[in-house]
Every structure is written in C-alpha cells, then in structure tokens.
Amino acid sequence: MVQEIVKILDYIEENILLEIKLEDISKVAYYSPSHISRWFNRYVGLSLNEYINKRRLSLAALMIKNTKKPIEYVAHFYGFNSSKYFSNLFKKYFNVSPRNYRFNNFFVDLQLKRLIKGGENMKILKISNLVDQIMKNSFNINTLFDTVSVIENCILYEQKNSDIVLIAYFLDEKNDYMLMQVDVNLITGKYVSKLILKTTPSKEIEISKIVKEDDKVYVEYKNISMQKTILASLIPVDTRIEVTTNVLEEIVNESGYENEIINNEMYDEVKELANTLKSANHVYEIENAVKNDNGLLILREFGKEFILLKLLEKKNHLFLFSIYLNFEDGITEINNIYGVLKGIKTVNFVLENNMGCIYLNKELHSQSFLNVNESVPPQFVISFPKGICGRGNWDISNLFHE
Predict the structure, then answer these.
(1) d(CA 82, CA 64)
(2) Residue 323 pairs with which residues in a beta bridge?
(3) Full-model pTM
(4) For 214-252, where are the E strands, in sequence order?
(5) Closest of 394, 392, 391, 368 to residue 252, by C-alpha
(6) Which of its termini does the chain have fewer beta carbons within 10 Å around, N or C?
(7) CATH topology of domain 1-115
(8) d(CA 76, CA 251)
C-alpha cells in the first residue's frame, strides 16, 4: 500500500491548483474510495481533505509572506472560491489571520509534502518497548508517521507539536488483551498510559486491529469460538492527559573551569542565534539557517518545537550547545557541554543517524543524542567510540591523544 500512497501524494502535488476529487484519486491508486480514505489516514496521519487543505494553506502562507499579492488573489490562486472561507480556514489551522500573519512575526506549522518510507509491519505488545521504538525512530512528523504506520497494534490518535496520543493494544502477563491510551512527549520521552478496556480472562476474545477513519476510531474484536467479528467505536471522554514539556535538564559546568569568560561569550553568541531563529515565520527559515551554518544541526522537529545543536570553536576550546525552541509558548532554552582541543587540525559536525556527530581530524570522536531513561531526567549525552559515555563536561584531549 505504501507505493499507492506515494502515487496519491505525487498526484496531489501535481494537481494542487486544480479541483481534486476522491474518485480521480481512486483511479490513480486502483483502490476504492473508502479503502483509500482509511489507508491514507493511517500512513499520513490526516484525512485526505485535511491534507489537501493544509498543503494549499501552507503554500498560500508562503505566498502571503513572500509577496505583496492581495489576500483575495492568494485565496483564489490556491482554489478557495471565497476569501472569507479561506481566512477562516487559515485561522483554524494556523491560529492567526492571513493579514496578521503577513504584517507580524508569527511562526506557522506548515504542512510540507509528505514523504513516505516503507517498512516491515510489526506488533509491539509491551508499552515501554512501543515508546522506545517511537522515540528511537521519530525525529520529525514524517518519521513519526512512518514509525507508527508499520506498528500493527497501534494508531496515532492525536498529535500537537511534540505531544502525541496513541491508541494501542497490548498483552498482560496473563495474555489478556488491554486497550490503552498512551500519551507521549517526543522531546522528553516521558509517557503516561491509561487503560481503556481489558478482555475477560476467558481467552474467547482477541483484538485484531485498530482503525482510524477521519476523527473516528474503531476497534475490531474477534470471538474465537463463534468466529464472529465485532467492530466497536471508541469515543473519547476527557481522556487527554497533559504531559510536561520542560525538556532539557540543565548541564552544569565544573566549578573549576579555567576560562569562564570564553564560556559566557559563547553562550551570548548562541543566545543571539536562538533569538534570531525564534523570529522565524516557518520551518523553511530555520532549515535555511542550518544550510548556511556548518556548525548548526536540527536534531528533533515537531510542529512548533525544535531541538538544535550548535558547535562553536574559540581559543582552542570546543563548545556544543543544545537549543530548544518552542514557538507556541515562546520558550527558549540553551544548555552547553564543552571540551579542550589539543593537536586538532580539522573539526567537522554532521548529522548521521539522527545524531550530531563530531569528527576530529576526520575521525569520529563523539555522537550527541537525547538520552531517555526512566531513572534520570532526559538530557543530552555524549557517546564516545571507545565505549566511554559522559554527561555534562567532557575533555576531548584525553581520548585520542593518550
């Protein structure tokens, strides 16, 4: 089904300025309209109409910000016959009117073209393993949907920035089925689970799948002895559990650090960078900043929340900063780790396997990633090739120059 979804996404891009009908998409993918609607939602995380509207509104937002075309012109250009309807929809998705967006500094969560990456289907029947799988493989919206789409016993029910709600079924120690709501924060890795229902110990009933169509969720059960399938709808009743999004535990430098002035200078430089990034209006501006700065990487990106890494060199010292940006709440957090350089001619900073990798003299020195562990607060960890793992202060000079 992955290839069919890719065809549909390409068809939408090619016809984004035209009227797009489900019947036409059905002919492109060679599946029934109902089948397409169901599987599109599973792989993309939005209904077909929602995705098309968000893509058109996102392109319209770029035109509004980058040109002086009248709002009415932009609305009609992207297929909205009524400028009032366009404005209402724009405000619904972006929480700001088109006019206010043009003349003021607002960050809007643009819907980029969805890219699909296939994978082997799997069932993960333990909650901690499910969260671990999602945290290890989800670094932005695309990779989140790719990860969830191949987990057969799980669906993504809701997503707002880095907060997601999963509906999944698991097996307990008695092999009884449990249908659970799992709220996860994709920045911290913290999660809260809540039991929705549990099968009776008779072993007569098993959950076969969970399906999401538009905003409705259905759970399919099978009565094994009667060979009967039951389809039940799931109705949320104030089940949303708020998750704390205060993300990075501050990393404190050792008190005996010999050159605190350099540290303060670097911090001020990164703070200025963070404030510049915070004035961005959409993700493209942040991505352009990363392209133009060899020492800047995006590590995690969910809606209006970002974690970036910034590497700075000064006076034989190397500084690695983490920058957390939350455009919705106006939060900026900066934390740093530092080291001393000795005999190093070249320093390279690249993103590999969703980790910030530092190469010294073209040899891999360290990998930076967000460590998620139930026993300690989430924080950045430096992992060294020799098997040494350290938090906070790290000294480069002792590793390759013994």
Answers:
(1) 16
(2) 308, 334
(3) 0.72
(4) 216-223, 228-234
(5) 392
(6) C
(7) Arc Repressor Mutant, subunit A (1.10.10)
(8) 51
Distances, alpha carbon 268 to alpha carbons 116, 209, 243, 262, 314, in Å: 40, 52, 31, 10, 13
Question: Which tokens hold the place of 115?
Answer: 């890219």
pLDDT at 75: 95
Tell me the C-alpha distance between 302 and 314, whole Å: 32
| Integer Cα distance of 59 and 112 in angstroms | 9
Selection from 312, 286, 280, 285 nearest residue 299 by Cα: 286
Instruction: Please report, for the chain, the start and end positions of each structural domain, with discontinuous segments joined by +.
Output: 1-115, 117-244, 260-400
Residue count of the chain: 402
Are 352 and 304 within 8 A, CB to CB? no
- In this prediction, residue 118 carries a pLDDT of 63
Q: Which residues of the chain have pLDDT under 50?
A: 238-258, 374-380, 382, 384-402
Distance from C-alpha of 161 to C-alpha of 166, rounded to nearest angstrom: 14
Taking phi over 0 as left and psi of -120 to 50 as alpha, with beta for the rest, 234 belongs to beta
DSSP code, position 12: H
3-class secondary structure, 78: coil
Alpha carbon 358 to chain centroid, angstroms? 24
DSSP-derived letter for residue 122 is B
Cβ-proximal residues to 357 (8 Å cutoff; 6+ apart), any chain: 349, 350, 351, 364, 366, 367, 368
pLDDT for the residue numbered 396:
33
Three-class SS of residue 346? Answer: coil
Cα distances from 291 to residues 295, 296, 323, in angstroms, run: 10, 8, 17
* Angstrom distance (rounded) from CA 15 to CA 23: 14
Measure Cα distances from 218 to 193, 200, 240, 256, 261 in Å.
19, 19, 18, 60, 60
Taking 3-state DSSP, the helix, strand and coil percentages for the chain, each rounded to the nearest 5, stand at 30, 30, 35
- CB neighbourhood size of 260 (10 A): 11
Cβ 11 vs Cβ 28: under 8 Å: yes
**Using CA atoms, how far apart are residues 27 and 29, in angstroms rounded to an integer?**
6
Instruction: Note whether 316 and 347 are within 8 A (CB).
Output: no
Q: Which two tokens stand for residue 348?
A: 């390279």
